[in-house]
């Protein structure tokens, strides 16, 4: 039985997703093959990590060689010495062998090349292995998560918004991917370098190393605290973005309602409000990271000062170390510390991945309370079809305080037709959802042939049930496929349950059950119940005489047909906007690249498309992005320090002890100053970039969302712009653009400054050596560029492939009730898995390319060093260049090279960002043919509401081959009521959409007070029109807010809301709820019955006081009692207004001034009811027989 506290628990835990997944648990879905790949990858990373410290050993020897050579040269400057046959001699025959510096350097060059080659191989293996293993695991996680979500009981979906699930499936799983792919390999590599660096230090000089290590706990504490804070804040930020995603999804799914009521700006603000809280968390995260990074650099620089001061005493005073050893120890520990620092972004990715995995894994582990795919439960051999409710009490899990069914006891006999009647909200539909086992009762039980249905196999049970819903949901595939989704082999002799509001449709039912307040208060045949004068009698007498005369078809009854005999449900929460022209959901999907999307009506598209394409990939993307962003650069100080350190090498060749000591102290002071500066700059940089990055993301999301809402309705008909795809695009595009423009711009600016300063100094010291080293720089840059180029291609495919999978998942989650009712969960899971295959293949390809580029980028530096030192040796010997200058030039350029490498390591992000930004600006630059935001167009004061359609022809942009309107001519004067009658698909709703300017006619015109609609200002026109549609769309906010939505141009007082509610006969119902007008209606109004939703929609239309009222079959969903009251409310609302009614039931329109009968897109006859009856044409036939007009 569903625990009611479950949902409340869900809601409270959702607000603060603490990290409850350990790092190694992220790998819980890996296979043996994955583990093997990760182990090999890690081994390669360990070997790769030890390469840099290994190079230090070579470097130490090389330094000593140079210094020895320098000391010899100094000796030669002594008059009393001479060089004979390469040997320094005292003139009294004391001899020393002079070093052959070139030969020595050649040896060192070979060492470097050897290390470089192995680094290439190891780098390639470590990255490709980890990325491949991650791709395999993510593939599995996506499959498991989606299939588990599809197994959840319906009550779980009531508590979890579809938008949030979509965000989890795109963003959160990507975060897990980041945490288990190349980041792990890079972390292992850096950590190994850290360990090996210290080993070199201890082996070569333990005293100095110990002094340095004594300071390092301070760094460790900083790193630990930083990881802790970042993880917590990331969780909070994710939560805020998920909520914003849910808002966007809801709004985009209900775009027609938003457009009709001019709610675009209001929705942008509501979306923005959620973004602001995400932005706050993001900025806090940036500040904390900046503070701790600055703190760590400060400690590191103070550590340098201490080490250098103490180290120099060991070299000069006690002569325990050679200068080479000092450098080895110093750089060993330095490289160790640096790599530990560079490993911290990896920790951030791990923390973000663990945060994202928490909810995903909890969902995967959660056992559904009603598992629709479970094999458990027995199947009856023979099904008779007797259904019984025994004292059933039921609450919806999301509203445990409102009792829906109260001790309901009712029996449905097999082979009979049983009708459930009663006022809206009496529990008729809920009873049927219990038979389908969408929910389990709180108390009591539902039995089939005497067996409690909780013991039966769910798939088998649902397979016996056939559904005809009030609001049919069709899936985005062919008509034939949609029909196949139903049940094969339906036979007669069924038990049928019919939920009806039109009592004429159920007069002949075998048994009629009257519901009231969640109980069955009476049962019997039509005549018996009339004599009892109870609920049924009241409902029947309320129905108008005219209605009885009509032989109503059961168009709006909820008919449930049982193959073999079992009843079924009606699905309330599956929403399909009727106005999305009947077929626009049936267009088969094709994988057209998003970048080609141009949504003007297809015929007018060509020229704009070319322009758009030119713009979208131009070089100006990032300059445009920077207009949305303001940032601050930070100069690299680290490189300066190394530079000074090499200058210090000279001090060891100085022979005067006093001068030496002075130089050394000066250098130590310099280190301290640099440390303090770096603390403040890092802190500022962290804050500035976090703020600019978060502001940019928020601005981009907001502007993007606003641009989407500003597109014409035809744009949304294109399946590529389905709500799911658009929500995904909003989330991922903005975060990818931020990825390349937040702190990363800081890093890139940093690196570029570094390179500039380094080049200037190097040319000053030795232009020849600088030119040689510069030959290698293009390779370093190239490896980065190559990486970017390759990844751009993949990013495109990735996006696309994930978007098509996102459409499948979005459609499945939005229509979960229909899918559950038809037992189609498995087929949707299979369809989703099929769509995952192409992004998976792309990821595998990416692994190799990324690996090769990474290996190449890493090994270039070793090769550069080899060549430079060899040439440096030549210059020292042949041209008398001082050896310390060789070190300075090499260190300057190689450091700037690594800086360039660092900049190039952001190329993948840059590549993704470029595509996202291009697509983003394409959306911004698109000028919709019908613009909501422009104030252009005619407006006039004395708006009458005089309407005329003149020879209107129209096809939907997504179906240019089907003519919907075929020369529509009809007019209506102010204050009159015009009713459109005709069979489904004849163009009734379309004509109303032309009036709202959701579309413009292809030919002909719509005149409003004599003004052509295409010339009238869109916001002005829509503000004069109120609409109540057949399936009202409500938003996930309070009842009061939903009513206020009717007029978004002004502040609406509570009194106005109450008076509108009273006019719509809604007030008494609202006052009976615990939270009155503050009651939340649930996602898409799922917490209310159809009748209640309809009355809110009417109140919403009334509050706007429109001049033109459009009623699209506004009372079809209501039971007789509320229909009478609502009909009165509508009649009152119609007074003094031009009104257009679309009717499927003739009783509601007999008193209209003009009735226009439509067929195939034009009016075949028009006049008043009496005139048309006298004509004895199509209308007469319709009234007398109820036959559809064909």
Automatic annotation (TrEMBL):
It is a multi-pass membrane protein. GO terms for cellular component: apical plasma membrane; mitochondrial inner membrane; recycling endosome membrane. Residues 387-623, 947-1185 form the ABC transporter domain. Keywords: ATP-binding, Cell membrane, Endosome, Glycoprotein, Membrane, Nucleotide-binding, Phosphoprotein, Repeat, Translocase, Transmembrane, Transmembrane helix, Transport, Ubl conjugation. The chain crosses the membrane at residues 35-62, 109-135, 184-203, 209-231, 288-309, 634-652, 664-690, 745-765, 771-792. It is found in: Apical cell membrane; Recycling endosome membrane. InterPro entries: AAA+_ATPase (IPR003593), ABC1_TM_dom (IPR011527), ABC1_TM_sf (IPR036640), ABC_transporter-like_ATP-bd (IPR003439), P-loop_NTPase (IPR027417), Type_1_exporter (IPR039421). SUPFAM superfamilies: ABC transporter transmembrane region, P-loop containing nucleoside triphosphate hydrolases. It comes from the Eukaryota. Residues 39-352, 667-912 form the ABC transmembrane type-1 domain. GO terms for biological process: canalicular bile acid transport; oligopeptide export from mitochondrion. Belongs to the ABC transporter superfamily. ABCB family. Multidrug resistance exporter (TC 3.A.1.201) subfamily. PANTHER family: ATP-DEPENDENT PERMEASE MDL1, MITOCHONDRIAL, ATP-DEPENDENT TRANSLOCASE ABCB1-LIKE. This is Bile salt export pump.
């Amino acid at each position: 039985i569903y625990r009611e506290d479950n949902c409340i628990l869900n809601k409270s835990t959702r607000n603060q997703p603490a990290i409850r997944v350990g790092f190694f648990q992220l790998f819980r879905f890996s296979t043996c093959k994955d583990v093997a790949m990760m182990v090999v990858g890690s081994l390669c990373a360990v070997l790769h990590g030890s390469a840099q410290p290994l190079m230090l050993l070579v470097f130490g020897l090389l330094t000593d060689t140079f210094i020895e050579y320098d000391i010899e040269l100094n000796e030669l400057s002594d008059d009393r010495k001479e060089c004979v046959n390469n040997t320094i001699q005292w003139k009294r025959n004391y001899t020393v062998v002079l070093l052959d510096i070139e030969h020595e350097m050649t040896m060192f060059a070979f060492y470097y090349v050897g290390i470089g080659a192995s680094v290439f191989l190891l780098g390639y293996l470590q990255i490709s292995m980890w990325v491949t293993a991650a791709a395999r695991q993510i593939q599995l996680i996506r499959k498991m998560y989606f299939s588990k979500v599809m197994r959840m009981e319906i009550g779980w979906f009531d508590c979890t918004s579809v938008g949030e699930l979509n965000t989890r499936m795109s963003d959160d799983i990507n975060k897990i991917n980041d945490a288990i792919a190349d980041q792990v390999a890079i972390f292992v590599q850096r950590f190994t370098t850290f360990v090996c660096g210290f080993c070199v230090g201890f082996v070569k000089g333990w005293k100095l190393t110990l002094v340095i290590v004594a300071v390092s706990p301070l760094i460790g504490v900083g790193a630990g605290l930083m990881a802790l804070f970042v993880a917590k804040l990331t969780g909070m930020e994710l939560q805020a973005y998920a909520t914003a995603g849910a808002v966007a999804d809801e709004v985009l799914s209900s775009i027609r309602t938003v457009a009709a009521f001019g709610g675009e700006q209001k929705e942008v603000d509501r979306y923005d409000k959620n973004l602001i809280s995400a932005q706050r968390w993001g900025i806090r995260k940036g500040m904390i990271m900046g503070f701790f990074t600055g703190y760590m650099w400060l400690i590191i620089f103070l550590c340098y000062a201490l080490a250098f001061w103490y180290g120099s005493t060991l070299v000069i005073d006690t002569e325990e170390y050679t200068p080479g050893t000092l450098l080895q120890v110093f750089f060993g520990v330095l490289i160790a510390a640096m790599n530990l620092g560079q490993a911290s972004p990896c920790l951030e990715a791990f923390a973000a991945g663990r945060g994202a995995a928490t909810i995903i894994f909890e969902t995967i582990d959660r056992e559904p309370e009603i598992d629709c795919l479970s094999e458990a439960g027995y199947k009856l051999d023979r099904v008779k079809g007797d259904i019984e409710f025994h004292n059933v009490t039921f609450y919806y899990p999301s509203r445990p305080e409102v009792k829906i069914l109260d001790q309901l006891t009712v029996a449905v006999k097999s082979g009979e037709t049983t009708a459930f009647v009663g006022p809206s909200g009496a529990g008729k539909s809920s009873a049927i959802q219990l038979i389908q086992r969408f929910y389990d009762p709180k108390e009591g039980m539902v039995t089939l042939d005497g067996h409690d249905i909780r013991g039966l196999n769910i798939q088998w049970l649902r397979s016996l049930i056939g559904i005809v819903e009030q609001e049919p949901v069709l899936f985005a595939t062919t008509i034939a496929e949609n029909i196949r989704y139903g049940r094969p082999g339906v036979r007669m002799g069924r038990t049928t349950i019919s939920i009806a509001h039109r009592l004429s449709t159920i007069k002949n039912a075998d048994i009629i059950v009257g519901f009231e307040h969640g109980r069955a208060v009476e049962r019997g045949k039509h005549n018996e119940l009339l004599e009892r004068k109870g609920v049924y009698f009241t409902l029947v007498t309320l129905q108008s005489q005219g209605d009885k005369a009509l032989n109503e078809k059961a168009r709006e009854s909820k008919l449930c047909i049982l193959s073999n005999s079992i009843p079924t449900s009606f699905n309330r929460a599956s929403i399909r906007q009727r106005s999305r022209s009947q077929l626009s959901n049936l267009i088969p999907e094709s994988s057209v690249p998003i970048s080609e999307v141009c949504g003007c009506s297809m015929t007018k598209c060509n020229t704009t498309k070319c322009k758009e394409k030119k713009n979208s990939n131009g070089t100006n993307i990032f300059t445009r992005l920077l207009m949305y962003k303001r940032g601050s650069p930070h100069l690299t100080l680290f490189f300066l320090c190394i530079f000074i350190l090499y200058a210090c090498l000279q001090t060891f060749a100085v022979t005067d002890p006093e001068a030496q000591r002075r130089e050394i102290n000066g250098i130590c002071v310099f280190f301290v100053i640099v440390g303090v500066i770096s603390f403040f700059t890092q802190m500022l940089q962290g804050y500035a970039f976090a703020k600019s990055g978060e502001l940019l993301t928020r601005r981009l999301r907001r502007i993007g969302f606003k641009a989407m809402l500003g597109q014409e309705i035809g744009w949304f008909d294109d399946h590529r712009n389905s709500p799911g795809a658009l929500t995904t695009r909003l989330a991922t595009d903005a975060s990818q653009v931020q990825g390349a423009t937040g702190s990363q711009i800081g890093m890139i600016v940093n690196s570029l400054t570094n390179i500039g300063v380094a080049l200037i100094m190097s040319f000053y010291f030795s232009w020849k050596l600088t030119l040689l080293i510069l030959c290698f720089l293009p390779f370093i840059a190239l490896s980065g560029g190559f990486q970017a180029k390759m990844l751009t291609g993949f990013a495109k495919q990735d996006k696309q492939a994930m978007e098509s999978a996102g459409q499948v998942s979005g459609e499945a989650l939005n229509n979960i009730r229909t899918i559950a009712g038809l037992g189609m969960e498995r087929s949707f899971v299979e369809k989703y898995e099929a769509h995952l295959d192409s992004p998976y293949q792309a990821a595998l390809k990416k692994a190799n390319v990324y690996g090769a580029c990474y290996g190449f980028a890493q090994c270039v530096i070793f090769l550069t060093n080899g060549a430079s030192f060899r040439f440096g040796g030549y210059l020292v010997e042949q041209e008398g260049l001082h050896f310390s200058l060789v070190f300075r030039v090499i260190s300057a350029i190689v450091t700037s090279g690594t800086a360039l490498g660092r900049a190039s390591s952001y190329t993948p992000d840059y590549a993704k960002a470029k595509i996202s930004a291009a697509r983003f600006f394409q959306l911004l630059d698109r000028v919709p043919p019908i613009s909501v935001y422009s104030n252009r167009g005619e407006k006039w004061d004395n708006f009458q509401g005089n309407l005329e359609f003149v020879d209107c022809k129209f096809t939907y942009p997504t179906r240019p081959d089907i003519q919907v309107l075929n020369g529509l001519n009809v007019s209506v004067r102010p204050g009159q009521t015009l009713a459109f009658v005709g069979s489904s698909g004849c163009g009734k709703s379309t004509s109303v959409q032309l009036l709202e300017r959701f579309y413009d006619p292809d030919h002909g015109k719509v005149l409003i007070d004599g003004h052509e609609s295409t010339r009238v200002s869109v916001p002005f026109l829509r503000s004069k029109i109120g609409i109540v549609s057949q399936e009202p769309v409500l938003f996930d906010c309070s009842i009061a807010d939903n009513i206020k939505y009717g007029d978004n141009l002004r502040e609406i007082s509570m009194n106005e809301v109450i008076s509108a509610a009273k006019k719509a006969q809604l007030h008494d119902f609202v006052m009976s709820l615990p939270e009155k007008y503050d009651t939340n209606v649930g996602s898409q109004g799922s917490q209310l019955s159809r009748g209640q939703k309809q009355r809110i929609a009417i109140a919403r239309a009334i509050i706007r006081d429109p001049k033109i009222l459009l009623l699209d079959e506004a009372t079809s969903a209501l039971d007789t009692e509320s229909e009478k009251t609502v009909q009165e409310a509508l009649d009152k609302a119609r007074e003094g207004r031009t009104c257009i009614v679309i009717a499927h039931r003739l009783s509601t329109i007999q008193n209209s001034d003009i009735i226009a009968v439509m067929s195939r897109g034009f009016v075949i006859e028009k006049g008043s009811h009496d005139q048309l009856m006298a004509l004895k044409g199509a209308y007469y036939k319709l009234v007398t027989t109820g036959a559809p007009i064909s």
